[in-house]
């Protein structure tokens, strides 16, 4: 007889709910498993197995309570316990397997097999535990179906769960986990109800024996209810505990996630490039600053080797370093900073500062590099050293650099017993070019001069700019002879004209040479002595070289004393003017006088202007002295006029430095006004250096000319200018230099020169004066050549004003005698 049965729907619902909750709890626990190890792992494994095992069991028995059979039912204790044990053990095995190979399908498959086996075994053993007066007959088809349902659903549940788990950072993870729990719940309850559907209960009549045979070991439904209650209690405790722990864990994860996000944003927005690479040097992270520094976008560089940002010549060393580090047994590097070079995407190599750290995890080593672009800083550093050691205009080493190098070279020369030469080079007339043509021309000239001289140096030598128009050359391993030769070559080289814009510039240099070891054992002394020798070269007429000699120091000392004395002389009225008459060749009358300065030194006596005028020019004192000369001479001329002497020309020597003063014309004008001298009796003697720069000179000369002043070219024949060149200058007088006159009767060549100058001057309508006439023969030959005037010891040395008066007096008397004679 087949028995009838019905279900209590509420209990059915509760049973399913229990299956779902148990699934949820145990799946969560399983996910913990993979992150734990040792004891903790076993605890979680046990908890998970119990959770799901009891869940399956509770589901089963609550569902059984929901199932009312028309006969009383008891349960066999042993089999009930066995069913629990089977469920728990099967789940434990399943979870152990699943948690090892979470990502692998096969492990999930085997896990699902064990879980479904657990569910099925529990169910059918649980069914066997029923003690009643009926036999259970299973429909084989539904029986197999129940097992298939259990397997497929648990497989789906596990798969879904771990899929969601893997992508846990997405939204609604909890809901997704609940969904997979529902599927697992479906596996359990689906199996159960299908299994129940497979069963039919065939009454066997009242078989008390059978029932009693088991009575001692059987439990009734009340006990069953308690058991389930306890099971549920255990289950809920586990669930609660696990969710509590889970929340703690989640909080921690959230916190980690937050920190991770924060680090990510810091890394992405950092000013320094942050690059991560794996042990093979493959780039795995690349921030914004790295993009800005190396020009590679994140997506084009990730996965590439670090080699792409390392200049080719460093790659080998870099790769070796990487391998060595890994081979060294993973000692960690934290924040080691080095300065290296990097390679940009556009091929540009630039300076970087790399701070390297390594991180070793399990078997892998990772490299993290913080990279800073220091090319700007490097550039600045270089600029600073250049500023400190290089002359910015010519880019030559400067004085500081030179001193260091010279000291080293001296040490080297001492060791090798070699001699060393120091050349001190000063340009002649540079100040003049700079003042008249402007600084840009001057600068250009300095650069060109440095280029020309650079030709003469080799690697071990050094050319430095000492400042202004001074250069120093150091030649280690150079003897006297060679130094002389090279000095002459440099002098010749500099004589060649320089071209700049429309100017053709001529320059020369003076070179002083000191030798190691004769002239000093220290850098400073060698430079100082070369400088002293250079002054000697200047004194010797410039455009020459001089070796230092010890007597030069005495000379320098004398010069120093002289300079100090000269400053005092101006204040102490030690200066005086002498006058030398200029005589008409044919009449022998005094046409003019040349004012010549004298210095009456309180101790040294009379000092020659040839000695102190160059010094005054060098120091600038010439301006003050020159103005005094003009004023004194003009006052004297006016005085003679007042005293009634026939008016004569007053010739005044003007030095280049005076003439170049922009206030020069005004100063002269002021003096004329003050002294009330008639400008037609005032003559300025200029040297050829003045007229070398016509652009500046001509307008000034014209201004002076307009004032009625006469202009004379002094020392003619010694300079560079040609006669034809003079046409453009508004000159009145030409003075033939003394050097031609002194040999005019001995040297045929000089005689020819004098004659040519006189002819030329006459044709240009210039008054010609011969200087330094000492003999009557000289005068005679000048007369024959048609010279206008002469000046020299033959007539008179330069004399004091009072003596000039006597000469003027005599001249006046002679004139009147001549006039009488004529009459
Ligand atoms: P300088 O302008 O060529 O002056 C002529 C020089 O020749 C004078 O030398 C004069 O004394 C000298 N002298 C004249 N006749 C004879 C002679 O027959 N035989 C010889 N051997 N010498 C003669 P001093 O006075 O010593 O002047 C030397 C130079 O100093 C001048 O050469 C001139 O360049 C400069 N100087 C003199 N006074 C002044 C001045 O007030 N201002 C400037 N800027 N320079 C001056
Ligand atoms: Ca003169
Ligand atoms: Ca002269």
UniProtKB/TrEMBL annotation:
Pfam families: EAL, GGDEF, MHYT, PAS_9
The protein, known as: EAL domain-containing protein
Organism: Bacillus mesophilum
Domain GGDEF, first and last residues per copy: 418-550
Domain PAS: 259-329
Keyword flag Ion transport: no
Coiled-coil zones: none
Keywords, alphabetical: Membrane, Transmembrane, Transmembrane helix
Residue stretches making up the EAL domain: 559-812
Regions crossing the membrane: 6-30, 42-66, 78-98, 105-125, 137-162, 221-245
One cellular component term from this protein's GO annotations in UniProt: membrane
Domain PAC, residue spans: 336-386
MHYT domain sequence ranges: 7-202
Lineage top rank: taxon: Bacteria
PROSITE patterns hit by this protein: EAL (PS50883), GGDEF (PS50887), MHYT (PS50924), PAC (PS50113), PAS (PS50112)
């Amino acid at each position: 007889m087949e028995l009838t049965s019905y279900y209590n729907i509420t209990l059915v619902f509760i049973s399913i709910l229990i299956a779902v909750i148990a699934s949820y709890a145990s799946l969560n626990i399983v996910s913990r498993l993979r992150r734990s190890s040792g004891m903790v792992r076993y605890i979680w494994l046990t908890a998970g197995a119990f959770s799901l095992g009891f869940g399956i069991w509770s589901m089963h028995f609550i569902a059984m309570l929901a199932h009312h059979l028309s006969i009383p039912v008891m349960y066999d204790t042993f089999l009930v316990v066995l069913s629990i044990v089977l469920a728990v053990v099967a789940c434990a095995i399943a979870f152990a397997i699943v948690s090892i190979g979470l990502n692998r399908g096969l492990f999930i498959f085997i896990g699902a097999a064990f879980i479904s086996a657990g569910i099925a075994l529990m169910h059918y053993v649980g069914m066997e535990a029923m003690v009643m007066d009926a036999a259970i007959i299973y429909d084989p088809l539904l029986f197999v179906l129940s097992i298939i349902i259990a397997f497929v659903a648990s497989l789906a549940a596990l798969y879904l769960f771990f899929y969601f788990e893997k992508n846990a950072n997405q939204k609604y993870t909890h809901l997704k986990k609940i969904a997979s729990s529902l599927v697992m719940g479906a596996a359990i309850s689906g199996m159960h109800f299908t299994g129940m559907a497979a069963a039919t209960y065939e009454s066997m009549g009242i078989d008390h024996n059978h029932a009693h045979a088991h009575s001692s070991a059987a439990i009734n439904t009340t006990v069953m209810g308690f058991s389930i209650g306890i099971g549920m209690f255990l289950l809920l405790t586990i669930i609660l505990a696990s969710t509590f722990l889970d929340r703690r864990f989640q909080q921690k994860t959230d916190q980690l996630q937050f920190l991770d996000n924060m680090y990510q944003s810091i890394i992405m927005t950092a000013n320094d490039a942050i690059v991560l690479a794996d042990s093979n040097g493959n780039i795995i992270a690349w921030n914004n600053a790295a993009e800005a520094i190396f020009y590679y976008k994140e997506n084009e560089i990730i996965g590439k080797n670090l080699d792409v940002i390392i200049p080719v010549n460093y790659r080998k060393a870099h790769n070796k370093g990487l391998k060595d580090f890994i081979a060294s047994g993973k000692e960690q590097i934290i924040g080691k900073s080095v300065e290296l070079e990097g390679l940009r995407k556009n091929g540009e190599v630039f300076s970087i500062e790399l701070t390297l750290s390594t991180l070793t995890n399990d078997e892998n080593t990772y490299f993290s590099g913080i990279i800073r672009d220091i090319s700007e800083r490097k550039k600045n550093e270089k600029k600073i050293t250049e500023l400190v050691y290089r002359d910015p205009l010519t880019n030559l080493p400067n004085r500081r650099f030179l001193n260091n190098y010279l000291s080293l070279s001296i040490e080297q020369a001492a060791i090798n017993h070699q001699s060393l030469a120091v050349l001190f080079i000063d340009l002649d007339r540079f100040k003049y070019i700079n003042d008249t043509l402007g600084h840009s021309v001057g600068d250009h000239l300095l650069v060109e001069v440095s280029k020309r001289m650079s030709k003469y140096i080799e690697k071990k030598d050094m050319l430095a700019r000492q400042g202004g128009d001074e250069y120093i050359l150091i030649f280690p391993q150079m003897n006297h002879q060679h130094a002389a030769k090279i000095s002459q070559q440099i002098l010749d080289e500099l004589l060649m004209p320089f071209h700049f814009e429309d100017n053709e510039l001529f320059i020369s240099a003076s070179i002083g040479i000191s030798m190691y070891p004769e002239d000093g054992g220290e850098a400073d002394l060698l430079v100082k002595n070369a400088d002293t020798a250079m002054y000697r070269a200047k004194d010797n007429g410039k455009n020459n070289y001089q070796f230092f000699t010890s007597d030069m120091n005495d000379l320098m000392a004398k010069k120093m004393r002289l300079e100090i004395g000269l400053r005092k002389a101006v204040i102490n009225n030690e200066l005086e003017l002498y006058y030398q008459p200029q005589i008409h060749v044919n009449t022998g009358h005094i046409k003019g006088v040349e004012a010549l300065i004298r210095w009456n030194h309180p101790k040294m006596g009379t000092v020659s202007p040839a000695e102190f005028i160059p010094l005054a020019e060098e120091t600038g004192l010439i301006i003050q002295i020159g103005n005094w000369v003009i004023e004194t001479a003009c006052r004297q001329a006016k005085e003679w006029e007042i005293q009634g002497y026939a008016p004569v020309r007053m010739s005044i020597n003007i030095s280049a430095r005076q003439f170049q003063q922009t206030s020069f014309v005004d100063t002269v004008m002021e003096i004329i006004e003050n002294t009330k001298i008639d400008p037609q009796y005032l003559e300025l003697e200029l040297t050829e250096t003045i007229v070398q720069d016509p652009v500046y000179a001509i307008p000034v000369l014209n201004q002076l000319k307009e004032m009625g002043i006469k202009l004379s070219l002094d020392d003619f024949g010694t300079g560079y200018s040609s006669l034809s060149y003079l046409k453009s200058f508004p000159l009145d007088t030409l003075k033939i230099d003394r050097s031609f006159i002194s040999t005019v009767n001995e040297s045929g060549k000089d005689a020819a020169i004098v004659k040519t100058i006189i002819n030329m001057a006459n044709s240009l309508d210039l008054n010609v004066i011969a200087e330094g006439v000492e003999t009557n023969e000289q005068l005679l030959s000048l007369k024959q050549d048609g010279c206008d005037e002469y000046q020299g010891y033959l007539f008179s040395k330069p004399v004091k004003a009072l003596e000039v008066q006597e000469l003027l007096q005599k001249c006046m008397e002679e004139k009147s005698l001549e006039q009488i004679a004529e009459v």
